[in-house]
Amino acid sequence: MSEKNTVGGGCLCGALRFSIDLPTLFCVHCHCSMCRRSHGAGFVTWIAVPRERFRVEAGAENMRLFSSSEHGTRSFCGTCGSSLFCESDHQPGEIDIVLANMDGPVGRAPESHIYFDHRADWVETHDALPRLGGESGIEPLQDAKKREPDAL
Questions:
Q1: In a domain, 39, yes or no
Q2: Which listed residue, 5, 56, 121, 146, has the most CB atoms within 10 A of its CB?
Q3: Are 136 and 101 in contact, with CB atoms under 8 Å apart?
Q4: What range does the domain containing 22 cover?
Q5: Using alpha carbons only, how large is the chain's radius of gyration in Å?
Q6: The domain spanning residue 97 has which CATH number?
Q7: What per-residue confidence (pLDDT) applies to 147?
Q8: What pairing do the DSSP bridges indicate for beta strands 72-77 and 6-10?
Q9: Assigned domain for 43 exists
Q10: What per-residue confidence (pLDDT) applies to 19?
Q11: 75: CB partners within 8 A, 6+ apart
Q12: Which pLDDT value is given to residue 2?
């Protein structure tokens, strides 16, 4: 794969570096409570690639894993605490990566809001992206009413 199809990324302190080979599988804004709490933000923008197109280039010893659910694991930097990756048994062979940790463009803009019915009451969105939710987090919503509990 040519160099222009590879994009690097890393944590805040730079101790952990990684790269991905494009194209990505998706780009979404996630509003689930686990993403919000893990990142301290109203929502988190994720991209994903097949696991074989992801590489930790440096600092693997700094990566810490947290089992956030019976099916999911989140990764963060043990030095600076940056949230980095999420993997789920529901999507084996894929790794979700926080878009904000990428060093350059990934060739895809956000395509939808997922778990939108779980969003924080204080989050307002004014874009025309699809709003998805329900049990899976990715079902089309008839309206954007919030429901509990959160599931990621």
A1: yes
A2: 56
A3: no
A4: 3-120
A5: 15
A6: 2.170.150.70
A7: 45
A8: unpaired
A9: yes
A10: 98
A11: 63, 64, 65, 66, 83, 84, 85, 86, 87
A12: 46
Question: CB of 151 within 8 A of CB of 137?
Answer: yes
Residue 66: strand pairing partners: 74
pLDDT of res. 9: 98
- The token duo for 22 is 């494009």
- Which tokens sit at 151? 């599931």
Burial of 8 (0-12, 13-18, 19+ CB in 10 A): middle
Residue 127 lies in a domain: no
DSSP secondary structure, 75-141, as one string: EEETTT--EEEEEETTSTTEEEEEGGGBSS--S----EEESGGG--TT----S---BEETTTS-EEP
pLDDT at res. 152 = 46
**Looking at the domain assignment, is residue 108 inside a domain?**
yes
Q: Tokens representing 51?
A: 């696991």
Overall number of domains in the chain: 1
Predicted local distance difference test score (pLDDT) of residue 143: 63
Residue 133 CB contacts under 8 Å (≥ 6 apart), including other chains: 114, 115, 116, 117, 118, 139, 141, 144, 147
pLDDT of residue 148: 42
Ranges of residues in the chain whose predicted pLDDT is under 70: 1-4, 143-152
